[in-house]
Amino acid sequence: MVKEDDVEKAADFIRDHGRAYGKAKAERLYLDEYRKSKKSELMQKTTGTDKTRESFAYAHPDYLDLLEARKLATEEEERLRWMMVAAQAKIEIWRTQQANNRTIDRTHS
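Predicted structure:
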């Protein structure tokens, strides 16, 4: 049984963390796009075939650091997203309980 206090906390969580979720998603999207730019930038720093230059870029410490940052950004985005989903589910469960209680009240009146 979800209590009204829990619903208020869930709504507060959504309100209070919406901006953090947006920021986490924006960071992850930025890193997704920046990864392409970084690869291109690194490929320009060396010579050889396209395959050789691409291998250089993918193995470069700057590119690997970027991948690590992207991993962390995705982790934070997903953590916040699933916490939002859980809060929304709690509110929906409470709403269903309230509707069920009203139905029971009407049938017993």
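Summary: Residues 61-107 form the longest helix (47 residues).
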